[in-house]
Amino acid sequence: MNYKVVEIFDSINGEGPLAGRLSTFVRFASCNLRCHYCDTRYAYDHPQYTLMSLAEILTRIEEASLDLVTLTGGEPLATPHVDVLIEKLGEMGKHVEIETNGSIDIAPFHRLAHRPSFTLDYKLPGSGMSAFMKTENYQYLKDGDIVKFVCGAKDDLEEALRIIRIYHLNEEDCYFSAVFNQLAPRDIVDFLLAHKLKAKVQLQLHKYIWDPMKRGV
Ligand SMILES: C[S@@+](CC[C@H](N)C(=O)[O-])C[C@H]1O[C@@H](n2cnc3c(N)ncnc32)[C@H](O)[C@@H]1O
Ligand SMILES: Nc1nc2[nH]cc(C(=O)O)c2c(=O)[nH]1
Ligand code: SF4
Ligand SMILES: [Mg+2]
Q1: Ligand 4 mean position, distance from CA 172 (Å)
Q2: Which CATH number does the domain housing residue 198 bear?
Q3: In this structure, which residue's CA is closest to atom 3 in ligand 1?
Q4: Paired strand residues for 22
Q5: Domain for residue 11, yes or no?
Q6: What is the pLDDT of residue 214?
Q7: Which positions fall inside the Radical SAM core domain (predicted)?
Q8: Model ipTM?
């Protein structure tokens, strides 16, 4: 059982409910979507990856001695045997967090003995990928999971609000992020104020700490 791993690195989590916390990141190759704004094309566009066994990944994570592990990509839930890795990490006492694009059924992962937490994207019109969203996933959301809306323009903000309303999403578990260098974070704040929304603004911390193009941070 081998996994296509583009990079493994230790950093602070720049996004999501655990932003600011140290985590070991595992970035898998390949993605089933092609978001217009994607900042991680190197994970699926002629990707350079290492084939790693389960044992090799676990050893690398164990060596880091961090309690949090973030599985990302590419699309981690499209990675063969990722469920096996999630269970093993759970057995090791790790908190596993999944960054997923919203197009993959999370039910099989929700039912694992060691259920991970999910940052579930809803891909807005600016991404070009809205048609692939599986909104059935919302029935499986639990405490600690969030829905993330990456907004590239004011139309995206309006659409995010519409989605929150029609699927009765808990506002406090919804994060609004800006497509980096495209939508001003201030516009998100103004939007939240205008609608008195309890959603949270989310900036990608690592892009402020390091060069925004830098990989492996
Ligand atoms: C690179 S994706 C990998 C995980 C998964 N494929 C997904 O889309 O959730 C990780 C996160 O980065 C976000 N992201 C990608 N490009 C971005 C950009 N240019 N600005 C802000 N966020 C971005 C995605 O929306 C997603 O929430
Ligand atoms: N520091 C850091 N935090 C992150 N949180 C989610 C990331 C991702 O690319 O999925 C990411 C990333 O690439 N770097
Ligand atoms: S789903 Fe995630 S990795 Fe795939 S293209 Fe969109 S942002 Fe990039
Ligand atoms: Mg990233």
Answers
A1: 23
A2: 3.20.20.70
A3: 73
A4: 12
A5: yes
A6: 97
A7: 18-212
A8: 0.99
Which residue ranges of the chain lie beneath pLDDT 70? none
Asked, for residue 216, whether it belongs to a domain, the answer is no
- The structure tokens 């989590």 sit at 13
Best mutation site among 72, 156, 182 for ligand 1 pocket (most ligand atoms within 8 Å of CB): 72
- Residue 217 belongs to some domain of the structure: no
Any domain includes 214? no
- What pLDDT shows up at residue 33? 99
**Number of structural domains, the chain?**
1
Residue 33 has which token pair? 């979507």
Site to probe by mutation for ligand 3, drawn from 27, 32, 75, 100 as the one with most ligand atoms within 8 Å of Cβ, is: 75
> Given this model, what pLDDT does residue 1 score?
85
Which residue's CA is the nearest one to ligand 2's atom 8? Answer: 72
User: Which residue among 37, 38, 44, 98 is best mutated to probe the pocket of ligand 3, counting the most ligand atoms within 8 A of its Cβ?
Assistant: 38
Whether residue 11 has its Cβ less than 6 Å from ligand 2: yes
Q: Are 204 and 14 in contact (CB under 8 A)?
A: yes
CA distance 81 to 154: 39
Furthest CA-CA distance within the chain = 51
CA distances from 62 to 66, 112, 116 (A): 8, 21, 18
Predicted local distance difference test score (pLDDT) of residue 26: 99
Q: Is 45 helix (H, G, I), strand (E, B) or coil?
A: coil
Domain that holds residue 130: 2-209
The ligand 2 atom nearest the CA atom of 16: 5
